[in-house]
Design brief:
Helix content is 29%, strand content 20%. It has 439 residues and is of the alpha/beta class. The chain folds into 2 domains: 5-120 and 174-377, Glycosidases (TIM Barrel), CATH 3.20.20; 126-172, Oligo-1,6-glucosidase, domain 2 (Alpha-Beta Complex). Strand 14 (390-397) and strand 15 form a beta hairpin. Helix 7 packs antiparallel against helix 8 (267-280), helix 7 packs antiparallel against helix 10 (309-321) and helix 10 runs parallel beside helix 11. The protein starts with 11 loop residues before the first strand and ends with a strand.
Length: 439
């Protein structure tokens, strides 16, 4: 039992497809706004799959060898968590041929691709839901959802079950065998198109038996297929061998940012938290954890650090040094800023004159460190506090040990002009506040 072996060597890059790059302007919706427009929850900037293909070299140069894409299925919104057809690529992103070309281009570069399984709910534009709106109790899909009465009414309060009360996100009745068959067909379909795994969206809103069956569908199609659950609190329940291979490691994120950005915990609390977290994860699953500092559901990393580039780099250093696969949210590596949704979903900045080179160079070098040091990718882990502001992470693997020392300073900003320097023997410095050594 355990996560697929390739996760130990993985570095992920997360993309919100509508906001990464516009590679095919012919797909732009009529109401598209300029790329540099302020992001809102409703506007479209024109990002598409061709844009991802066009910039795969940037992703590889960042050091990533795996992609996680938020939903790509036909939908009404820019985020596409409101699928209207799970078997179609959204017409504003491209088509199935474009997606297959994306998979081919990724795999030719040694990059794996993971899609978002949004199976707790769909959009109110889904054909099955629309059939019930039209035919009410006579619809053959009436039991695919949970309705209280007819006619179907979204306002002022939906008279059907939804995701978190959102009227345009009707909740699937996952106890219905026909719904399960539909969902499992979705899983099979995209695996057959070449994807390497699924990220489970809000899986805690569906019973575990559904996810056991989902795993039973996925794994026979390839043991290397990755299943990672969105989880904000407790990872253990997902890592017992019957549900997922890892979780999105928001617990690690809380610890790292509490130490580097917020100052709410000192080195001792960070070390204790990291060691407790490691002990909670069953053997064989540490490398399947998806470590992150930012995502489409959080404020951006540099924003959380109040613009302090060097402290943001300290956070990256801790994440890249920890057990699990690090993940970079698009644009964080070049210093984009933004508060939580919609602020964190701006169009990717492609004008290199606006990039924060200290962050980009630091992320690239941290990826190179992982590639050069098997212990950083596959080693056991122990975290120790050297003083209130200094953390030591020790990774050991087959006689190789890498030690990572991170000093955050005593309430002193490291400043925006700090630049990471990497030399051999391995040394990373941000005003001499970060030292990485191997022995």
């Amino acid at each position: 039992m355990g996560a697929p072996d390739w996760l130990a060597d993985a570095v992920f890059y997360q993309i919100f497809p509508e906001r990464f790059a516009n590679g095919d302007p012919s797909l732009n919706p009529p109401d598209v706004v300029p790329w540099d427009s302020e992001p809102t929850r409703d506007n479209f900037l024109g990002g598409d799959l061709q844009g991802i293909i066009d910039h795969l070299d940037h992703i590889v140069e960042v050091g990533a060898n795996a992609l996680y894409l938020t939903p790509i299925f036909e939908a009404r919104t820019n985020h596409r968590y409101d699928a209207s057809d799970y078997f179609r690529v959204d017409h504003r992103l491209g088509d199935l041929d474009t997606f297959r070309r994306l998979v081919e281009e990724c795999h030719s570069r040694g990059v794996r691709i993971v899609l978002d399984a949004v199976l707790n709910h769909c959009g109110d534009g889904h054909w099955a839901f629309e059939d019930v709106v039209k035919n009410e109790a006579d619809s053959k899909y009436v039991n695919w959802f949970s309705f209280e009465q007819f006619p179907v009414s979204p306002h002022p309060v939906p008279n059907y079950r939804t995701c978190s009360g959102c009227y345009y996100l009707p909740k699937w009745n996952a106890y219905n065998p026909e719904v399960r068959a539909h969902h499992f067909d979705v899983a099979r379909h995209w695996i057959e198109q070449g994807i390497d795994g699924w990220r489970l969206d809000v899986p805690y809103f569906i019973n575990d038996n559904f996810w056991r069956q989902f795993r039973d569908v996925v794994k026979p199609m390839g043991e290397d297929l990755y299943i990672v659950a969105e989880e904000w609190r407790e990872p253990e329940q997902w890592l017992q061998g019957d549900l997922a291979d890892g979780t999105m490691n928001y617990t690690l994120r809380d610890l790292v940012l509490g130490f580097t950005a917020d100052g709410t915990i000192d080195a001792k609390a960070f070390a204790t938290g990291m060691n407790i977290l490691s002990a909670r994860i069953p053997d064989g699953y540490h490398h399947g954890m998806l470590n992150l500092l930012g995502s489409h559901d959080t404020e951006r990393l540099l924003t959380r650090h109040h613009g302090d580039q060097a402290r943001a780099l300290l956070a990256y250093t801790l994440m890249y040094s920890a057990q699990g696969a690090p993940m970079v949210y698009y644009g964080d590596e070049i210093g984009m800023t933004g508060e939580n949704d919609p602020g964190c979903r701006a169009g990717m900045v492609w004008d290199e004159r606006r990039w924060t080179r200290s962050l980009l160079d630091g992320v690239r070098e941290l990826g190179a460190l992982r590639r050069r040091n098997p212990s950083l990718r596959r080693g056991d882990q122990k975290v120790v506090a050297l003083d209130a502001d200094t953390v030591l992470i020790m990774r050991t693997f087959e006689g190789d040990m890498t030690s990572v020392i991170v000093h955050r300073g005593s309430g002193v900003s490291l400043g925006p002009d700090a630049h990471p320097i990497i030399t051999e023997p391995i040394r990373v410095a941000a005003n001499s506040h970060v030292v990485v050594g191997a022995s």
